[in-house]
Amino acid sequence: MRVLVLNPGSSSLKYHLRDTSAPDAAAGLLMSGQVDWPADERSSQDGLHAAFDELDATIKGLGSSGPAAIGHRVVHGGLRFNTPVRVTADVISAIEDLSPLAPLHNPASIACMDAAGRRWPDLPQVAVFDTAFHRSIPEFAARYAIPEDAYQAHPVRRYGFHGISVEMACRDTAEFLDVASLNAIVAHVGNGASVTAVKNGLSVDTSMGMTPLEGLVMGTRSGDLDPSVVLLLQQEGATADEVDHLLNHQSGLLAVAGSADMRTVERAAGRGEPQARLALDMAAYRLAKYIAAYSMVVDQPGALVFTGGVGENSHIFRAKVVGWLAPLGLALDQGLNTADQARIRTISTTESAFPVLVVPSDEERAIAESTAALLATAVRKV
Predict the structure, then answer these.
(1) Do the Cβ atoms of 1 and 372 come closer than 8 Å?
(2) How far apart are the first and last CA of the chain?
(3) In the CATH hierarchy, which top-level class contains the domain 2-129?
């Protein structure tokens, strides 16, 4: 099946057209790209329709090779959605209800579903959720220690994110290592970053929580911090919206080093700039601390996996992280770690306690395959 995958961000709409019947991932990618819009037009009709005009023109150029279905990445599916679903008015309404927990992402996905439905009304649409893979996290790891009445009144629990990427990375890792059941620690590191403990192929804990703010030091997000910081900022006069903006858009690498781009931070650190070196050390240490804890959670890890833009491309960051993990017996092969290869590979020494891998992230392939599988199941039932 040819599936058009739509992945909206804060300033662009990334798209892939994939043939899920192709013999391998490379052959299955028919087209990819992105159309941009100004950040302040992300949800506007003008910005959205301009983006879809450009995308529509590209698809029309394919003639009969155009899509048979559309798959959407949706960041937050709450507790309701633990599998991909066909897009309906009820599904869109439920995704909209979850928008306060993912205000940068869910509204953009809804806008894309609406625009795609108007532009290609005959094509079925499927929503694939980042949170779904983490529904297997046990209650003792998902709950926060707050009063029961507050817990029941609000959606306060650990949901986890990056699940589409992590699930695909686990599948590719298990195939690469030729194991039937995978125990691993998967670090998806990009501008947003999280790490997941995977036991017997299932997510059992993850660093992001109720929202994508918790956990690691990210490009513009603070990650873990004392909740009293929020109270202090509000006591000093900041509104809830201002605190939210500060922690999501003005923190992380940007706050410490002056840039949210890891490549810029690494270059500055290489020049000896102290704030850049501090930011790099903070991000690497935070991730290493989670990995060490999750190695206990998964019990005899079979692999440590780096994926995502930074995880795949920054040998400097990987080396810093694994350097902290020497007490666990992990060791990188410098030549393998610095090799520039866009494929799944081992970067650890043969003496490492367990292998360290780089696994290219392919969320769009996962979304396309999930979309095709759901629609094929629906056809068989009919």
Answers:
(1) yes
(2) 18
(3) alpha beta
Domain extent listing, the chain: 2-129, 180-358
- pLDDT, position 154: 83
The owner of tokens 């679903």 is: 85
Which residue positions in the chain have pLDDT lower than 70? 9-11, 37-48, 378-382
Q: Please give the pLDDT value at position 235.
A: 97
Rounded to an integer, what distance in angstroms lies between the CA atom of residue 130 and that of residue 126?
A: 13
What CA–CA distance (Å, rounded) separates 25 from 35? 23
Residue 30 to residue 19: CA distance in whole angstroms: 7
Q: What is the pLDDT of residue 42?
A: 46
Specify whether 130 is catalytic. yes
Residue in 19, 56, 90, 130 annotated catalytic: 130
Q: What is the dihedral of CA 340, 343, 344, 349, to 10 degrees?
A: -30
Domains 2-129 and 180-358 share a fold: yes
**CATH architecture under which domain 180-358 falls:** 2-Layer Sandwich (3.30)
Query: CA dist 75 to 58, 157, 258, 275, 363, Å?
Result: 26, 16, 27, 32, 12
pLDDT confidence of residue 45:
59
Rounded Cα gap, residues 14 and 33, in angstroms: 6
pLDDT at 52: 82
Question: For residue 207, how many other CB atoms are within 10 A of its CB?
Answer: 28
Distance CA 61, CA 312 (A): 33
- Cα–Cα–Cα angle for 245, 110, 187, nearest 5°? 60
The pLDDT assigned to 379 comes to 60
Q: In this structure, what token pair is assigned to residue 64?
A: 């009969």
Question: How far out from the chain centre does Cα 378 lie?
Answer: 28
